[in-house]
Amino acid sequence: MQIGFWLSSEEHGPTEMVRAAQRAEAAGFPYVQLSDHFHPWIDRQGQSPFVWSVIGGIAATTTDLVVGTGVTCPILRIHPAILAQAAATASVMLDGRFFLGVGTGENLNEHVTGAKWPPLEARRDMLEEAIDVLRLLFGGGEQSFRGRYFTVEDARLYTLRRTAPPIYVAASGPDAAALAGRTGDGLIATDPDAKLVSGFERAGGTGKPKYIEVQVCWGRDAAAAKRLAHELWPTKGLGGRLAQELRRPADFEAACEPVTLQASTRDLPAGPDPEPYVRAVQACADAGFDHIGLHQIGPDQDGFLAFWEKELRPALERDRVLVEA
């Protein structure tokens, strides 16, 4: 099992993200994941840099760190042929230390080009076809493709490693888990759901890596840390498909007005005690995840990374939760 570090492009500017990745590598994290957004969820988060520029900065300033997107939507805002070029270039710059996380996306980011936002079932079909395009172009040579949703004409990736970057597929329900198992090289999720993992494995995912994001908020005062988490991520308290359907940060802010601190931070490890963090990591491991990315909410990334080095990692090793492969 590996514990990684999750970097939120909604909260941090590009230079801060590059610096945090360097610091995470120094702290012993084997990988980082970066969210790929056009907008933050709410204005208070305050950022949304272009993830591919950030990846270039990380590639130029790290030596061993594996980098992946968490996740990129290849169906509207970015054509899969363009994404294939971006991912192939990132893999070259990182000397193979790159994976591409993909998913069906959110209207929040994808509506900006004026394209119609499809229903979830259509988006899953589009994602599957987009993965076909990515794999076709990663295979090298001049390629054309005419599918139901995407067309590629006489395209060739000239900047391409001999080994293609792996494609990990995000899932939050059984249909998406089956798609991930069938078409992906791995799974990405946000909830420690053992049924999701078993559905992924039944569909062909046995033996493939399973990644999960765990939001945390380290701080010297647990109550203050939870208040900060609620201020920046009240969206954690939203139910249903709102996170995929709302269009603007202002819409999310309106939807979050009735969300209470208790609802948005119910399962959030927060404060200076490592034990809640250990329990959260253990829950993910028990559900079958083998790559657990810790997303420190808020600006104090250095504080969390020091906590990781001095207290959290030793606690995980003591309890034999962290046993690296």
Short description:
With 325 residues, the protein is of the alpha/beta class. Helix content is 44%, strand content 15%.
List keywords for this structure.
325 residues; alpha/beta; 8-stranded parallel barrel; two-stranded antiparallel sheet; 10 strands; 44% helix
Shape descriptor:
globular
Helix segment count?
A: 13
Strand arrangement within the widest β-sheet reads 1-2-3-4-7-8-9-10
How do the SSEs run, as a string of H and E? EHEHEHEHHEEEHEHEHHHHHEH
Q: Give the helix proportion (percent range).
A: 40-55%
Structural class: alpha/beta
Amino-to-carboxy terminus distance: 6 Å
Arithmetic mean pLDDT = 97
Low-confidence stretches: none
| Main pleated sheet | 8 strands, parallel, barrel
Rg (C-alpha, Å) = 19 Å
Number of DSSP-assigned strands: 10
Q: Strand content of the residues, in percent?
A: 15-25%
Polypeptide structure, described:
This protein is of the alpha/beta class. The protein is 44% helix and 15% strand. It is built from 13 helices and ten strands. It has helices at 14-26, 51-61, 80-93, 107-110, 120-138, 174-183, 194-205, 222-232, 242-245, 249-256, 261-264, 274-287, 301-318, and strands spanning 2-7, 31-34, 66-69, 98-102, 143-146, 151-155, 167-170, 186-189, 210-216, 291-296. The strands form two sheets. Strands 1-2-3-4-7-8-9-10 form an eight-stranded parallel beta barrel, surrounded by six helices. The longest helix is centred in the middle third of the chain and has 19 residues, at 120-138. It starts with a strand and ends in a 7-residue tail after the last helix.
